[in-house]
Task: inverse folding
């Protein structure tokens, strides 16, 4: 995931990534998709209180599906599981921020789940 993403130029540290996985299990959710013994996708998310009121929003943190499985139903099932988790935990809505280069497929997937675009992701290098 790290090597493919928009943050591939940042340093990857296995121990930090593992600690993130442990922490997200405490404050949010962590879903894993397997095919036989192989992990072929995963999703992490959390609840955040709306900044100006009492309601909670479920926020996607990481979504990854192995390239050879992106045309199947793994992404859909991971997002659907997150949406159910969010509902079960009292969220009023869900929010996803995607940084995939080829958004057409993700837009279609999001549409199948009743989602619609509300913004974009921007970034800028600060060092170098």
Result:
């Amino acid at each position: 995931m790290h090597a493919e993403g928009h943050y591939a130029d940042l340093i990857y540290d296995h121990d930090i990534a593992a600690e993130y996985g442990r922490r997200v299990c405490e404050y949010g959710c962590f879903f894993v998709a397997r095919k036989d013994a192989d992990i072929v996708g995963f999703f992490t998310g959390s609840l955040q209180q709306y900044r100006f009121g009492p309601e909670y929003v479920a926020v996607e943190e990481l979504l990854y599906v192995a390239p050879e499985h992106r045309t199947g139903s793994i992404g859909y099932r991971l997002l659907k599981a997150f949406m159910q988790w969010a509902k079960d935990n009292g969220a009023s809505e869900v929010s996803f921020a995607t940084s995939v280069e080829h958004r057409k497929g993700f837009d279609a997937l999001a549409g199948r789940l009743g989602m619609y675009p509300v913004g974009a992701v921007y970034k800028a290098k600060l060092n170098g």
Observations:
- The chain has a mean pLDDT of 89.
- The chain has three helices and four strands.
